[in-house]
Amino acid sequence: MPRLDYFAPGVYVEEINRGSRPIEGVSTNVAGFVGFTEDIRNSAELFKPMLVTNWSQYLNYFGKDNSDGFTDFNAYLPFAVNGFFLNGGGRCWICSIGTHLPGKQPSPEQTGLEISTRGRNRPSLRLGFKDPRANLPSLTIEIQDSTPKALPPDTEGEPPENTGEFFSIVVKQGDRILERFDNLTMNREINSQVADYVVNRLAQSPILQVADISQVGRPLARRPANGTFQLNLPQVASRPENLTRDMKGSQDDRTGVQGMFEIDEINILACPDLMRVYEEGLISLDQVHDVMGLQISLCEGSMSGNVPNPPNRMVVLDTPPDKVKPQEVAQWLEDSKLRSMFAALYYPWVKTTNPKDGKTINIPPCGHVMGVWSRSDETRGVYKAPANEVPRGVIGLAYDTNFREQELLNPKGINCIRTFPNRGIRIWGARTLVEPDITEWRYINVRRLISYIEKSIELGTQWVVFEPNDEDLWARVTRVVSNFLERLWREGALFGASPEQAFYVKCDSELNTSETMILGRLYVEIGVCPVRPAEFVIFRISQWNSSDGA
Predict the structure, then answer these.
(1) Cys-Cys crosslink for 296: which of 92, 119, 261, 340, Cβ 3.0 to 4.6 Å?
(2) Quick check: 247 and 271 in contact, CB under 8 A?
(3) What is the C-alpha to C-alpha distance for residues 318 and 338, in angstroms, rounded to an integer?
(4) Is the pLDDT of residue 242 over 70?
C-alpha cells in the first residue's frame, strides 16, 4: 500500500490493489437427485445429500459390493443418475430416502451382502443380520486365508493338507473385532476334525446368518474371494404415512428436498422416485403435487424475498405414469395448477435397458434430460436451448407423440421427446412451465441465462461491499459488469450488433442519491437482451420470374 510520508530522497516502488477484478461465470450444471438407492454406505447417510462426480463414486456410496447399483424393486433414481452421467453430467448431489420401499419387507436376497468367488464371476456366500433390529448400523466383514485344523495333541499321523480352500471370516465394528471364525470351507461333507462347513459354523453366530449360494464345483472353486466388505442394515424410510414428510425433509437438518436447497451449487433438481412411490400406491396424486409444489416454491424463494440470493435453480418434473396419452397429460397439468418459470416438464417417459434382467423398462426422463442440459452447457453455453439433442441411453419412448399431438402440448409448456425418421430420438421442446401469456420467460435457456448472469455478478462483485461509495466505485463497478456482459455478447449469449444494443449498465448519481448513500446502499441497473431459440422456422416460398424483379 502507498506510504503516507517520505523523508529520504530516492525512488519508491509501491504496489496498489485497485480492488476490482473480473467476474467469473458460475457453474450451471450441478444436479440434485432425491430417491431410493440400492445401499447407503461408507460416509453416505440416509436423507443427507452426498456429492458424487461419476458413476463409480455413486456405486461406492450407494451400491453394494460387486453390484451394478440398480435396485431389485426398480427404483428410478439409479436410472436417472446413470442417464445424467451418460449424457454429459459432471457433478451431482444424491439424497437417498431409503434402500427399500416403505411398508415392504425386504427379502434376504435384497438386504444381504453377496460375496463372489475368487474369479469374481460367480456367487459364493450371502451374509446378513440375524436380527434386522440389531443396533449395529454397519459391520466390516473380512475374508482371509486360513488353514485346516491342527491335529489334536498326542495324535500321530500327517496333518491335513492345505489345499487353499480354507478361509476365515472376521466380523468388525470399526476397529473392534466382534467375531472371528477360522478353519472354514465350502465343502459340505468335510470332516469336522479337518475344518468346518461355513454354514454350520456361522449358525453359532448371534450376529450373522449365512447362506451358501455357490454353484456346483469343487470347494476351492466355490471359495469366497479375500477382501474387506461392508454389511449394512437395510435403510428403509419411515412408515408410508410419513413418506412425503421424509421426502420434503428439513432445512435445519439438511435433509430431503429442503436440504438440497441448502447446498448453494445445486442448480438443477429432480425427484424421480416421486413417481415410483405413486406407482406403488404409497402416496396420492395430491401428495405428488404437494412435493412438486415445494420444489417449485423453493426455486422461487428468492423471487419472493424468502432467500436473499438470486434465483439460480430449476426443477425438472415428470408426468405421472398413468397419464400416458397427450390428452391425459394436458388435463393433468391443467388440474395440477403447476406453473412456474423455474420448472420444466418433459413427456413421455423413456425406455432403457434394465441391467437386473436385461429387459426394457419405462423410466421418467428427468435424469437424461438434466444430463443433456449439462452437455449443452459445456459444449455450447447456457444460452443455447437444450433441445434438438439426442438423449443417450434411450432406446425407445413409452408413447410416440406425433406433430398434431405436440401442437396440443407445446403451447402448454410440455416439452415433448419425439422419434424422427433417420434422426433418432430427440428432445423437441425447450419451454418452462410459466403461464403461456408471460412470453419473456417462455424458454428454458433464457431463464437459465438470466440466473447465470445474476449469480455470477453476485459472486463476482463481493469486493464492492464496504468500499467507499463514490463516483470512482460507480465507474469501477460499471466497468467490471460491462466487461463481463461484453464477453457474453461476444460468445453469442446476448442479441445485438454491438454491445450497446446487447446490454446496458447504469450506476450514477441518478440512481444513487445522497439519501440512498446515507442508508449505505449502492444501486446498479442492468439490462440485457438474451438470444431466444428459433422455435418455429418458417420459409416463405413463392414462384418468381426474373423479369418481374425481386
Answers:
(1) 340
(2) yes
(3) 12
(4) yes
Of 46, 1, 51, 55, nearest in space to 31 by CA: 51
Q: Are 274 and 316 in contact (CB under 8 A)?
A: no
Sorted by sequence, the CB contacts under 8 Å of residue 413 that are 6+ apart come out as 333, 339, 344, 345, 431, 432, 433, 434, 436, 442
In angstroms and rounded to an integer, the radius of gyration of the C-alpha atoms of the chain is 31
CATH class of 30-101+238-385+432-444: alpha beta
From CA 26, how far away is CA 452, in angstroms rounded?
7
CA distances from 406 to 330, 394, 418, 524 (A): 10, 20, 9, 42
What is residue 53's predicted lDDT score, i.e. its pLDDT? 96
E strands present in 404-467 = 414-420, 424-428
223 or 135: which leads in pLDDT: 223
Domain boundaries, the chain: 1-23+461-550, 30-101+238-385+432-444, 108-232
Q: DSSP readout, 6-25?
A: --S-S-----------PPPP
Beta-strand runs (E) in 319-440: 343-347, 350-353, 360-363, 396-397, 414-420, 424-428
This prediction has a pTM of 0.85
| Banded pLDDT at 430 (limits 50, 70, 90) | very high
> Contact, 88 vs 368, CB < 8 A?
no
What is the arithmetic mean of pLDDT over 242-247?
90
Q: How far apart are CA 186 and CA 198, in angstroms?
A: 6
Three-class SS of residue 154?
Answer: coil
